[in-house]
Amino acid sequence: MNFTEIPIVQRDEYDVTDSVKLNGSPGTGKTTQSFRRYIEALDERNTDVEDTCVVSYRVSLANDLIRRLRSLGIVEDKDTDDLEKFGTIHAVCKRLLNVSHKSMVNSTHKAEWCENRGWKYYADDDEDTVGQLFFDVLDWLCINNKSVNDYSIAPAYEEFVAEFREVDLSDIIKSWNEYKVYNGLYDYHDLLSEVVRKEITPDAEILVVDEMHDVYPLMFSVINMWSEKVEQDNGTIIVAGDTQQVINSYQGAHEKYFNQLDIPEITLQESFVRPPESHWNTATQMLSKSHTPRDITTNVEGNIYEISSPKLPSRDVNNPRDILHSQSEENDSVMFLARSRAQCRQVSKSLKEDGILFSGSSGTLSWSRRNNAKRVALYHILQTLSTYDGEDGKVFAENSGKKFDADDALLFIQSVPAKYIDGEKDDFELIAKSENEVYLYDFVQNTTDEFWIDLTNGSDSLDNLLVKESVKSWLQPALENNDTSLLESEQLDVAIMTIHASKGSEADVVILYDGITTNIKNSMFTDSEKRANEHRVWYVALTRSKRDLVIVRDAFDYTVPILGGDLI
To answer: Nearest-CA neighbor of 506 among 555, 538, 549, 551?
Structure first.
């Protein structure tokens, strides 16, 4: 069905110009309904895109709406000026404050500051470092609108002080803030607090907020301030969420923030894409341990598999690579999920050793989706070039008809030293910038004979390219992997995420590692709030797949099962 033909739920009762909040279970089309209402409201209100604000939990959701706007001719292909108020809440706040990307705190800044204190920041094993735990404490204080003197109630504080005796963090936090001021830097939570402090609101007739159920106090302060302004100006507010998917309660998230928005609520009751019925039944059994699941209609078909894993990291049978091969098909998206960052890091180590390229969430030893795309582009072109080595390689390449995506080709060309280019490098890059595809013939026409000698040797070609050592360390095992059964699609769309980071995401195949720490298990017995939150966490995990759900057991020696046989 064409996007514009998708019916808008309860349109007769609530016009597209009316403010509404959409509450629905996974796969019921919350985002789709939000976007349908938004696009129709643009037309009904005769509003320009530049006079709207769209806030999403993930960058990809905002980009999806932008693609739809372009496909409908509402926004020009190259037009970005109208889209300044599209993106994550942090991105929108950054633009409202005119903060440059270079002014944002990154891991290098944190590591430098930690080193000056004699602390370790980067993890080289499966444990969070002192530096990471400190920033976990600080972030929790800031996003919960707490005073720095409240540090002892932050969830990560207990682990942090395990490395020290009792310590006064207020002075250490002051030191970090002074470091930021001296270097002109902003933490991500600083963007939100500055917008609230300065009472900055976007000039918007329509405000869209996705994944509203899992906002924390500071985020709600921003959204509530913006909503009140839109309401005062008789604008339209469209909010989407699922109060049964609140899984970031450790960050201060609570369903009350969704409920506090005083606008009409629409409950969505039919699932279109996911989860399959068998997954839904399993997920609701988990959720029902602490909550009353909604009734939804789902006719999606899917499978659940169970696999016993060796202890990770490992190359034994049923290691992550084996599971990836056995459970995925061509053009599949695949998501590895685990409860903690430490568990994800062990999965990452196994995949990296076996030459799999993947993206992932923060703290999982993964790269961002954008940076992983660069690695994948280099990998595929180097892999292709390696089949054209030898004296006749250039001749065969010229007549092969092989072609590459233009963006991939451009990334590769930019990594090629000028000495291998026959003519001006800018002219070769222009081909990739002006076409949708670049043929291997174009490579032949624009490169020297030395190119076909030095850059057709697979992993041995890496030292002849302009790429960082960190990139080489990932490409080396991938190019040395002689298993030609590895599907290109697997290299393109594999992600490793914590369950919390997967919120709002989906994949054809979800490989879910069973297991929680004894600390989490013990807290579930003693704290009803934590028990309810944990059930919601695994409810989210069990509803990410569109087709196949693979439950992997026994992978970690420090966890206990939570997905019992009664669920599967």
So the answer is: 549
- What does the block give as tokens for 249? 């309660």
The arithmetic mean of pLDDT across residues 143-153, rounded, is: 94
Token reading at 243: 């109060």
Whole-angstrom Cα distance, residue 45 to residue 391? 66
What is the strand order of the sheet 334-338 is part of? 303-308, 545-553, 507-513, 334-338, 494-498, 359-360
% helix, strand, coil for the chain, step of 5: 50, 15, 35
Which position has the token pair 């050793």? 353
Buried (b) or exposed (e) across 242-260, using 16+ Cβ within 10 A? bbbbbbbbbbbbbbebbee
pLDDT in tens, 106-123: 989 999 999 999 999 987
The residue with tokens 């599967």 is 568
525 φ, ψ (degrees, to nearest 5): -80, -30
Q: How far is CA 161 from the centre of its chain?
A: 30
Strand 334-338 versus strand 507-513 pairing type: parallel
Asked if residue 335 lies in contact with residue 511, where contact means CB atoms within 8 angstroms, the answer is yes
Helix (H) or strand (E) holding 476: helix 469-480
Residues in the chain, how many? 568
Q: What are 65's two structure tokens?
A: 């709406």
CA distance readout (Å), 539 to 242, 409, 506: 12, 41, 14
Q: Return the number of other C-beta atoms located less than 10 Å from residue 359's C-beta.
A: 21
Q: Answer yes or no: is pLDDT of 555 > 60.
A: yes
447 DSSP assignment: B
What percent of the chain is predicted at pLDDT more than 70?
A: 95
pLDDT band, very low/low/confident/very high, at 223 (cuts 50, 70, 90): very high
**Beta-ladder partners of 266:** 22
Cα three-residue angle 329-331-336, rounded to 5 degrees? 70
As a whole number of angstroms, the distance between CA 388 and CA 394 comes to 7
Of all helices (H) and strands (E), which one includes residue 551? strand 545-553
Angstrom CA distances, 70 to 39, 47, 75, 227, 264, stand at: 12, 16, 5, 26, 30
Instruction: Report residue 389's pLDDT band, with 50, 70 and 90 as the boundaries.
Output: confident
Q: What rounded mean pLDDT belongs to the chain?
A: 90
Question: 54 by DSSP, 3-state: which?
Answer: strand
Span of 4-13, 122-131, 438-447 with lowest mean pLDDT: 122-131
Average pLDDT over residues 468-483: 83
Give the Cβ contact number of residue 25 at 10 Å.
26
pLDDT score for 126: 63
**What would the mean pLDDT of 545-566 be, rounded to a whole number?**
93
Q: Is the pLDDT of residue 488 over 50?
A: no
Q: What angle do CA 278, 282, 287 make, to 5 degrees?
A: 140
The dihedral region occupied by 293, where left means phi > 0, alpha psi between -120 and 50, and beta the remainder, is: beta
Residue 122 identity (one-letter amino acid) = Y
Element (H, E) at 403: strand 403-405
Residues 6+ apart with CB under 8 A from 268: 9, 22, 23, 24, 25, 28, 29, 30, 33
Predicted TM-score (pTM) of the model is 0.83
